[in-house]
Amino acid sequence: MIFKLKHILYVQFIIYFLILIFLNANPVFLTLLGITIMSSLIFVLLIDFYNDNIKFSTKRISMFFYIILLIIFFLSFLFSKDYLLITISSIFLYSYYFYRVQFDKDEFLNIINIVFLFYLFISILAYFNFIPYPRTTTAEIIGFKESILGIKGLIGYTGSTAHIDSFSVLIACVNFIFFKNKKNLIVIVISILTALSTGSMTAIVLIPITILSYLFVRKPILAGIILTLYTIIYLLILFALSSNTHFYVLGQDLYTIMNAATHGRSVIWERMWVKMIHEYEWYDYIFGINNFKGIMQVPIWWSTGWTSNPHNSLLNIFFRFPLFFVLGYTYFIFLVLKNFNYKLFTVVLVILMASLSNVEIFGLQNPIYFIILIYTLTYFSKFNKKEFN
Fold first, then answer.
1. 341 and 333 in contact (C-beta within 8 Å)?
2. Residue 120 Cα distances to 67, 199, 230, 291, angstroms
3. How many whole angstroms separate alpha carbon 342 and alpha carbon 116?
4. Is the pLDDT of residue 313 over 70?
């Protein structure tokens, strides 16, 4: 078999699981995974650069500066050890990769289904103690939740329900929008049962959101209104939580409601938001903050007592690189509306909602989230939208 550029995605996931199983409890995990993703995708870029026969073309010059930018990101990562730099670089690279490499949707769907089913398989093995969890301390801290089925809730192999609940719903969502045969139906059933078995509120909320979005959001103007409200309401909640004024909803204190609804995550959001306002210098907003984990430690009354994890993927990027996030998020919304398709929007909405309670949506612990998002976005931008309506 001749090696093709599309096979790089297969290789990446094989390496991902090898590193996950053998090195997940080791800090080397993210470093090796980041180097694997970056080097293999830069390889695609270099191959394209080399095969461009038109010397000094606009395409070649653009690619040259693109490579230089990625090298700068990579060197920044080596010095700062901020893995989000690798994530951001990977998002850019995957955008180019999926636009450059012709991935049929059925082939892509087979890959992510295999990845999910294998991750579920090792999670079940760990759940029944056939194999150890790689991060036992995390599993011990979080413990097992009681699921709605009345049994101990399933947690992901990497030590938390957050590592598998939204993952399962996203897999169900992608199989649903690209539905073709009974194999898709089987995966949908398995993934929904998996999500429900975690006992996670995230899964319970995401499933109806997926169905409602698919059925009713058929126009870009409605999608734009939803994304605008999503952003404005969340910002208003952050301002309200960090305000000295007490706000009430139906007679209940907003702080108490959010604390209960988010299982304490809103406390972290509020304290990090206040810390950013009071401690960031003007250049931190423009160029990003150095030593994020050291500066943004906030007290909590559960778990380890202190955390620098916002438990929110969007805030995780925003707190580190405020200006970059605002520009990137705005451009992302523009792309979604410009290439609007109700199936694409369903995937986007599920990922955005999952981002509110999961820091790994845009991270290396499970890169499948942003890989699916980027593939779906590039897929609908390359083909005639009417074909899929």
1. no
2. 36, 15, 31, 35
3. 24
4. yes
Q: 222: which 2 tokens?
A: 């409605």
Q: State whether residue 386 is helix, strand or coil.
A: helix
pLDDT in tens, 217-250: 999 999 999 999 999 999 999 999 888 787 888 7
In angstroms, the CA 223 to CA 225 distance is 5
Q: What is the phi/psi pair of residue 377, to 5°?
A: -65, -45
- Put residue 223 in one of left, alpha, beta given phi > 0 → left and psi -120 to 50 → alpha: alpha
The model's pTM is 0.83
- CA dist., res. 367 & res. 353, Å (int): 17
- Please list the alpha-helical segments (H only) found in the chain: 7-23, 28-51, 58-80, 83-100, 105-127, 136-142, 165-177, 182-197, 201-216, 220-242, 254-261, 265-279, 282-287, 292-295, 313-320, 322-338, 342-355, 368-382
**What is the radius of gyration, based on Cα positions, of the chain?**
21
Distance (Å, whole) CA 224 – CA 218: 11
Q: How many angstroms separate the CA atoms of 375 and 9, rounded?
A: 12
Pairing of strands 248-249, 252-253: antiparallel
Say which DSSP state 146 is in: B
How far is Cα 66 from Cα 52, in angstroms, rounded to an integer? 15
Residue with tokens 């093995």: 125
Strand partners, 249: 252
Burial 300-329 (b: 16+ CB within 10 A, else e): eeeeeeebebbbbbbbbbbbbbbebbeebb
Does the structure show a pLDDT above 90 at 186?
Answer: yes
Look-up: residue for tokens 């150095």?
290
Mean pLDDT of 133-157: 59
What is the pLDDT of the chain when averaged over all its residues? 79
Name the one residue in this structure whose structure tokens are 């959010």: 258
Contact 220, 340 (CB under 8 A): yes
User: Tokens representing 187?
Assistant: 């995966």
Q: What percent of the chain has pLDDT over 90?
A: 22
Between 165 and 160, where is the model more confident? 165
Count Cβ atoms below 10 Å from residue 151 Cβ, excluding itself: 11
pLDDT (average), residues 127-145: 62
